[in-house]
Amino acid sequence: xxxxxxxxxxxxxxxxxxxxxxxxxxxxxxxxxxxxxxxxxxxxxxxxxxxxxxxxxxxxxxxxxxxxxxxxxxxxxxxxxxxxxxxxxxxxxxxxxxxxxxxxxxxxxxxxxxxxxxxxxxxxxxxxxxxxxxxxxxxxxxxxxxxxxxxxxxxxxxxxxxxxxxxxxxxxxxxxxxxxxxxxxxxxxxxxxxxxxxxxxxxxxxxxxxxxxxxxxxxxxxxxxxxxxxxxxxxxxxxxxxxxxxxxxxxxxxxxxxxxxxxxxxxxxxxxxxxxxxxxxxxxxxxxxxxxxxxxxxxxxxxxxxxxxxxxxxxxxxxxxxxxxxxxxxxxxxxxxxxxxxxxxxxxxxxxxxxxxxxxxxxxxxxxxxxxxxxxxxxxxxxxxxxxxxxxxxxxxxxxxxxxxxxxxxxxxxxxxxxxxxxxxxxxxxxxxxxxxxxxxxxxxxxxxxxxxxxxxxxxxxxxxxxxxxxxxxxxxxxxxxxxxxxxxxxxxxxxx
Length: 497
Hints:
It comes from Stakelama marina. By secondary structure, the protein is an alpha+beta fold.
């Protein structure tokens, strides 16, 4: 956090008795609701999540490998005008990401223009030569994007990273809202909150809209999971059930004559659109890793032939790479003709000598990340690290500088959070979800996944590193002027869609 005190999104720089004007009602609710009652509701939510099996896997640990992501009752709230600005920036960024992926596996105009160094693409493990020359149905590769945002002030939002491979967390967004509606209905009488429960319908429509040519009228859509041992299996099952489509494992699919078929008790059925939650490496043993037991042999041939749509497309990892991220302002400008509406966090590319020297000299003050890291792993938060940890990371950067980037340690915004010692500010980030269907026009879901660092002072929000989640309220456009005038019935209907 440095010397600057973090901006609290509810309290501003005041406290529970001096909140930001727009959130006085929420601050009153926190002050007037007995702490014992808040704790009771929190336990009720956790009990429900446990019964539903909403867990995530912690790999490498023998005990408690399946855990519930901690949930906090104090919601994050976005004002309508804030959300409008964010949505514009998200739409622009996702359009640029789709254009970039299409170009980099096609004509590579951005390389011809000298915007990116070619070695950043061709020497990148996330660049899949196997995908080069394939044009996905309708030209869309990143159908589902999760763009991670951080906030440092009232009007200061930054993109922290892009997720265009298999962004997870949407099931928590939906379940968190269900819990809040049930446990804290009074908040939905106070605030008119945009609905999120239409997400499964939006996702299903997105899938149907990108069906291969000739299969648009009644496409068969499925969700492909690697199986119940996967850390996000609950989400795979939840989304398939919510959309009313089949959840399939690789053994349920077979490819014949470049067409994908699903085995059923009534015989084979042709599959048109696959929302796949299997990583590229394991997707097709005939093309990627030959030892994969999680893939569908021949699925890439069907994809190349244009007979099946894969959501998200193979090869998207190049857009998630943190070295590519550092060029996103230039990428957005190249493909949209305008400056990025959502700025990046300042980023130092360790592959460049001058930047590398700065990072090595100031590692104790920076956040250093692997370009292909995720989940909070492969990352050093300098101010929170020991001398030995910094020294170890310095050796790694010196040995393989191309694999690392570094960023300043931001004073991430906080939100009041229930702790063992009562309400206290905790740092948060935010993952909104953006869907792009056959029309090419992205849709921003009016909500998202707020992740919270539950450890005091921690900036690491990942669930695998001890983080939790909150519901994210997006207020309706007129809500800021007339929050208290809404009836309970109206609020509930708005919230439940």
